[in-house]
Amino acid sequence: MNTRLAKRNYNIQQWKTIIQDRNNTNLTVDEYCKQNGLSRNSYFYWLRIIREEVAAIYHTDNMYKGTSPKEILDNRQQSVKPLVDAYFAWVKEMSANPGLDQSSAIKAALNYSLNQEQYLKTFLTEPEVPLDNNDAERSIKKFCVGKHSWHIIESKNGAKASAMMYSIAETSKANGLNPFEYFQYLMDQLKEYPRNNVPEDKLAELMPWSETLPDCCKQPKR
Which of 35, 40, 71, 120 is deepest in the core (most CB within 10 A)? Predict the structure, then answer.
């Protein structure tokens, strides 16, 4: 291994421990650095480097955004996976540190990563799955803000039905459809079939991403 690279890797691990230790105290960065004889500039420099390790995962994955599923999967397996594996190796190393405060926020964050590791890695083998769920979070923001004012759900079945309707509405918007027109089209089509007995090929035609949907369902292009 290149000597300079080896030194850089050692420093990253060393500073990860330092930053983790500071997070377990009530000291400000200035107080911690002064108490431990550290350079404030060096602290923030390495904090940025560590954050860039996570940013590198996003950057490398986004390089193939909009390409074919095969190209996305190849990139994730060849370039993104080593970065993700390195991240989880660090998480496991830090979590096993006997000096880590078990009640700290950093410990809770590490535990979350470990408990969700299987699911957080799903995108590495499924090209259609995004790296995170930010799009889903943004799509539910509007009705999450309003839900405290509505108070219309009084049962689990009602909540389940509401979740299903919102999922369809937000998925239709994500696929460039007008939710009202799309729901109206669904009702017109589904009334022709017995409940819970719609042929699979017909359901495929009704999916929000179906290319056979009529123009009336689509949002006008701006």
Answer: 120
Per-residue pLDDT tens for 127-163?
Answer: 999 988 888 778 777 777 666 656 666 778 877 888 8
Cα dist. 29→22, 47, 109 in Å? 7, 11, 20
Q: Is the dihedral of CA 144, 109, 49, 127 positive or negative?
A: negative
Mean pLDDT comparison of 17-21, 100-104, 168-172, highest-scoring range: 168-172
Kindly report the CA angle at 50 between 47 and 54, in degrees rounded to 5?
135
Estimate to the nearest angstrom the gap between the alpha carbon of 161 and the chain centroid. 25
Q: Any idea what DSSP says for residue 177?
A: B
Give Rg (Cα) of the chain: 24
Rounded to the nearest 10 degrees, the angle between the axes of helix 3-23 and helix 40-62 is 110
At 124, which amino acid appears?
A: L
pLDDT tens readout for residues 125-136 = 999 999 888 887
Q: How far, in Å, CA of 219 to CA of 222, rounded?
A: 9
Bridge partners (DSSP) of residue 189 are none
Could you give the C-alpha distances from 150 to 40, 143, 145, 153, in angstroms and in order?
Answer: 49, 10, 10, 8
Distance, in Å, from the CA atom of 191 to the CA atom of 186, rounded to the nearest integer, reads 8
Assessment of whether the complete model's pTM goes beyond 0.85: no
Closest CA to 180 of 191, 190, 169, 171: 169
CA separation for the pair 186, 182 (Å, rounded): 6
Instruction: Give the CA angle between residues 2, 7, 8 to the nearest 5°.
Output: 95
